[in-house]
Structure prediction request, 553 residues.
Amino acid sequence: MQFKFIQVVAAIITLMLLAVTPVVADTSTARDIWIDGHDYAAVLEENLRVDNTRDSDLAGTHYKGHFPEDPDSWVRVSRLDSGWEGLAYVFGRMHAIGDAPRASRVTSFSTSQLEAPQCGLDHLHGRTFITPQSLTGRAMAQAVSASYDTLCANKVDGACLMLELELAFDQQFQDRFPGDFQGRAGAILNMVEGFYADQFGIVFDTLSLTFTGPGTFDSTTDAGTLLDDVTARRGSRILPFLESERSIFHLISGRDFAGSTAGLAWVGTVCYSQGYASGITNAYNSNATTAVVIAHEIGHNLGASHDSPDNGCDEGVNIMSPYVVSSATQFSQCSDDAITNRISQLNSVEQCFNFPADAGLTAVSGNPSEVQAQSSFQAHFDIAYRRAAEPADGLVVAGAIGDQEGRLLGVSVGGAACTLLGTDAYDCGEIQARTGLQLSVHAVAGDRPTFSLLQNVSLASNSGDVKDIRPINDSILTEIAVTDNESGTTGDPDDAEPTSGTPEATGSDSGGGGGGGSVSWWWLVAAVFAAGLRGQGRVGQPVRVIGLPGWRN
Prediction:
């Protein structure tokens, strides 16, 4: 009875989400972008790290991608109510992207047209009250300490590290952009991540993104005073929306800082507690300019100083120029060295970074696409697993079939039997995270026109430091056509041979087309959810049903 109760509760929670969200979908899309008089086809994929940022109310849909014509290219673009907006780096040049809401083509304009604000106050390098004792804390158990090169020897989808980042957009930002501040926030975050993902393999694990109310921070327009206020409030732990004392925190403000200051941040304070891993940015009308400033200020937190003739890197060219260069495409070699060296010096990288991995399910060629009613069959699925520097502690696999669409006879992973939860769901518990695993399902089709099988795999991380960077492939829905048994006999399910063919993976909207064979989505997703809960054990991490916005690790 407990299992049925969980089904009902989960079904109620997910009802509205399932009406609009596919369980499994190919999120890649091709989009022509008009640059310098030429059409370039960009391959884009939804950036779920931005779209699913926890505890936020972001608007728009945000994408990452590249141009196949240029292997070194990258694109970060967002579809907002106002149109498309973002950045595209292609053939060695950076382009800001924008169009009207219903324009037929996405266009770019030169980033040299954007504002070029100044960097402020040399980032308070000389504050003497910062001491090594005030910035260090007790190391965590099983601390990870390694050079950047070692940490980034292996990458998953181009990423080797996930920087713990927290953002706040103040009341002045919301008042300055009242119609679209939520979309702007997502677009800015998406663009900033693009700079770090491209050059360092660093993506963001955005722990929080908050739109603050009036009075949260000092109303001053002096950048130094505001940064001191942010640092003090964070160090005193009186900002309830922050999740970690060692994440990088950045405040984006709609106020105009005094003078020509664009932003301000502490230098080299990544992983520091007591509020110092913080920075502030003055928002500009151009989201692209704001993104460059934030990338610059986070660069300071990560250890980079300004480019200058003194360190052999010319100013006015790259992101760490003392004045903002909106057309900057990358960090200079000086900045690259400083950031990677600072990461290499960290005694406990996991205090402020997480590690990407990926688990996914794909159907094996030769699975049945059609079976007879009341006949048995087998279907097989490959379980993919990839990791960067740190391994997951395990994989959690669970699945369920549609209501009254058949019954399960047995399920195994790598030859080891899983636990059947009645005849319509299974739970494999926590299994070893490794490559080369295959999931095998032995079932009997019912009398309904379709046999639907929904399955999910998720990473288990006892510490929470290993995160799934590509959750879109965690779940798979297989639908197999069921034909009438013309002989009128049932046959022995154990003697039946599998039918050849390939199953069709579809979205959740395909199962509601009417007739007795439509999938009972409340029941089906709830069953997988419930199976995952049973399989958690010591994992402490729920099974993710991909495509459900707001589902968090």
About this structure: The longest strand covers residues 376-387. The chain has three domains: 28-113, 121-351, 356-536. The chain has ten helices and 25 strands. The two ends are 27 Å apart (CA to CA).
